[in-house]
Write a structure and sequence with these properties.
A: about 220 residues, Ubiquitin-like (UB roll), 3 domains, flat, B: about 525 residues, alpha/beta, Flavocytochrome C3, Chain A, domain 1, seven-stranded mixed β-sheet
């Protein structure tokens, strides 16, 4: 049996096994979570949590489903962050710096405090990807921001009111649509399908009996 | 961090790596596959299932835990609701905020209808978000929809409904094109052609990915598009009952505000059910990869309204769930790991199965290795698993491959001081997907007029076993088809006065079957609260 430690959920003390994640510890303490819980696997960004260890002044952040509890941890979840999202039509935009400066002028007010990077539970270099966006280097911004899960912890710490994850998302979409070449083989195949290239074979397969299908399947060639 | 004992065992994995590298373990023949399934796959363990006593699929076997909820009274049975006090009104009500719901909403809007999307948790808190591996589509020159069709049918044990498979594979390339058009950032070669890899049971490399955030990348862009299209979204408002008019047509739903605990009436001409899977019911006690809200609500609501189930007794156990460390036990280790060459190994560091068998066969083989042959590796908490040799990936494709192709996986394990580039992972099958669901046609229609189903809630597409990468495709194909069809026919066959009469009949049947009245559904959220013992 794991050792028990003391944690404080919104100021109230609970004793929980030291091996638990913050999320499991909250449930262990008796919470039936409604907000602040989604995939429980570190992909959805629903469970952003702020905490502080008694005696340490530094405010720390993490995902409740991915962070282990520590003794004397004071924690609260950030169940919702009131971020604005500009609406746009990707079709009408160009992949250029002007687009980003129009929708997100605040990125130029970045004071370089690096709080966003420190807040990122994914360990992304958030300030750096905003710097790439400022310079119009969308490829680097897209690559650096890609693993973002939009938990909003960066934005919650930003003195310049930048909503970093929205910037990353728009840059990635612009970059992917307009700067990465389209896959010719996809267009070719779509045209073939629309021209009826596979209709006959498909009709045959749909009407085939199970033994015929088994025979085709068991003798098919598997490429390596 | 692995224990000292586990680190000792890893030495055996390292010792055999040289002789294993580059050697393909033979695939099983059909008889060998059947044997391992019969003996070790949880679906073939009949004690985990119950035959339904009531409803449109009476006599059908379902997992015990699902049966408890299907054979239950409505959670609003004794609540006085004014069905005429409409809170929301839309042309099309979409229930569920995952990939299928989002795709349906976009397509409905594009075809001139006004959709309303309601969801239990946040928009995007869904299994789509967690799909790591990729999406299949036959767009490469050496591939075709014909090959894709055959792979899907064989993988599904020929139980798939052929017309649904046809829709799936023929729409595939168009879906990839749509994704490119929306600026979804897929892994590509320099010239823009798609980087693809094998999944279990595929004859061509046709899985497209976005690092190992494939579903997350799709979901966040779809969500962004839904907001860009000014579609109304209501979060933390699960549907708890369908509204049905006097002719049995879907006419909306009763929603429940999880925070204020009030009910809302949402009326619509068409309803698209896209609530996803049911992994959080933990069939046969398995841990799950599924998101918090995956409690099968859509199956229950649709069934009560008269829609039929197909293959609800076929559950997918993903072969590689986390067996260690215990904090993340049951979560997903993507099939892309095996697609890139990672192989399962027993306690002696020996291969015992080809890494790219279909999921049901691969999972059963791992269970056999642990339970039948007693060659698994035990963890300090008593969990048993097999190794998944990830360092082999770096050896095959070069150093840096894992960081580039599997950053999510790598990041997660590093938090527990396991470096998957240098050490193997410990895995065991985990509850992943419901292969069956509500029976649909090619446009997502069900037996209940005006009720569509799309995504994991739908059944028939994958037969008895879905192949990797076919669900990200399925949610987009059938989400879009349902959205289009509902929009096109939005003003035809409009429902009349919405009601809950269908419940009276259902409740009567429950009563006659002797089901206790305190059994209620849907469940909405699992309860993991610790029971206070002292």
């Amino acid at each position: 049996m794991a050792e028990k430690i003391e944690i404080y959920i919104m100021g109230k003390k609970y004793k929980v096994p030291e091996t638990l994640t913050i999320m499991d510890a909250m449930e262990y303490a008796g919470y039936h979570i409604k907000r602040g819980c989604g995939c429980r696997s570190g992909f959805c960004g629903a469970c952003g949590t702020v905490y502080r260890i008694a005696g340490d002044k530094e405010l720390k952040v993490g995902l409740a489903c991915q962070t282990k509890v520590e003794d004397q941890m004071y924690l609260a979840q950030l169940p919702f962050f009131p971020a604005s999202k500009p609406t746009y039509s990707l079709e009408e935009l160009a992949s250029e710096l002007d687009t980003i400066s129009y929708y997100f002028p605040e990125i130029f007010r970045c004071v370089g405090c690096n709080s966003c990077t420190k807040a990122c539970p994914q360990g992304l270099n958030v300030m750096q990807y905003i710097a790439y966006a400022q310079r119009g280097d969308f490829e680097k911004c897209a690559e650096e921001s890609f693993d973002c899960i939009a938990c909003g912890l960066c934005a919650s710490r930003c003195p310049a009111n930048i909503i970093h994850y929205q910037v990353g998302l728009m840059v990635r979409r612009l970059y992917s649509k307009y700067e990465i070449p389209e896959a010719d083989h996809v267009q070719k195949r779509v045209a073939e399908i629309n021209n009826g290239r596979y209709d006959q074979e498909m009709k045959k397969l749909i009407n085939a009996d199970i033994d015929e299908l088994k025979d085709i399947y068991n003798n098919r060639n598997i490429s390596s | 961090m692995y224990t000292r004992e586990m680190k000792e065992l890893i030495k055996k994995v390292e010792a055999t790596r040289d002789q294993r590298a580059g050697v393909e373990f033979p695939r099983m023949n059909p008889e060998e596959k059947q044997e391992v399934l019969d003996n070790y796959h949880p679906d073939y363990n009949k004690s985990g299932f119950v035959d339904l006593k009531i409803g449109p699929s009476k006599g059908q076997a379902v997992p015990d835990e699902l049966g408890e909820l299907l054979e239950a009274y409505s959670s609003i049975k004794d609540i006085d609701l004014d069905l005429n006090a409409t809170d929301y009104e839309a042309d099309i009500l979409i229930i569920g905020g995952g990939g299928a719901g989002a795709a349906a909403a976009l397509e409905a809007k594009k075809h001139g209808a006004e959709p309303l999307l309601v969801t239990k948790l946040r928009f995007g808190d869904a299994n789509t978000m967690m799909a790591q591996g990729g999406i299949q589509a036959a767009d490469k020159p050496e591939d075709s929809p014909v090959e894709h069709f055959i792979d899907a049918m064989g993988g599904g044990h020929y139980k798939n409904i052929p017309e649904l498979v046809k829709a799936l594979v023929m729409d595939g390339p168009e879906i990839i094109s749509w994704m490119e058009d929306m600026g979804i950032m897929l892994n590509k070669e320099e010239d823009g052609s798609m980087e693809t890899f094998h999944g279990g049971g595929t004859s061509r490399m046709r899985a497209h990915s976005a690092r190992d955030y494939s579903g997350a990348e799709i979901m966040r862009v779809l969500r962004d598009e839904v907001y860009n299209n000014d579609i109304e979204v209501v979060e933390f408002a699960p549907a708890v009952e369908l509204l049905i008019d006097d002719q049995g047509r879907a006419a909306g739903a009763v929603l429940y505000n999880l925070e204020t605990e009030e009910y809302y009436i949402a009326r619509a001409n068409k309803v698209i059910m896209a609530t996803g899977g049911s992994g959080r019911l933990h069939y046969q006690g398995f841990p799950t990869t599924n998101h918090y809200g995956a409690t099968g609500d859509g199956l229950i609501l649709s069934y009560r309204a008269g829609a039929e189930l197909i293959y609800p007794d076929t559950i997918q156990y993903h072969p590689t769930g986390v067996a260690y460390p215990p904090q993340i036990q049951g979560s997903l280790v993507t099939e892309k790991v095996r697609g890139l060459g990672g192989t399962p190994l027993n306690i002696n560091g020996e291969q015992f199965v080809n890494p790219l068998e279909t999921r049901d066969v691969e999972a059963a083989a791992i269970i056999r290795e642990c339970k039948g042959r007693d060659l698994g590796i035990e963890t300090p908490t008593g969990m048993i698993g097999v190794w998944l040799d990830t360092p082999l990936i770096e050896r095959i494709h070069g150093e840096g491959t894992i960081e580039k192709q599997l950053p999510a996986m790598h990041r997660r394990y590093l938090k527990y001081n396991i470096d998957m580039r240098k050490e193997p992972l410990l895995v065991y099958p985990t509850l992943h997907y419901q292969n069956g669901g509500i029976l649909i046609d090619e446009n997502g229609r069900t037996k209940v007029e005006n009720l569509y189903v799309a995504g994991e809630t739908a059944g028939g597409i994958h037969g008895h076993n879905r192949l990797m990468g076919n669900s990200l495709l399925d949610i987009l194909v059938f989400g879009r088809r349902a959205g289009q069809d509902a929009a096109k026919n939005c003003n035809e066959n409009k429902p009349g006065q919405p009601g809950l009469k269908h419940l009276d009949k259902y409740h009567q049947e429950l009563k006659e079957a002797g089901i206790p009245e305190d059994r209620r559904a849907p469940k909405l959220l699992p309860k993991y609260r610790h029971q206070k013992t002292s």
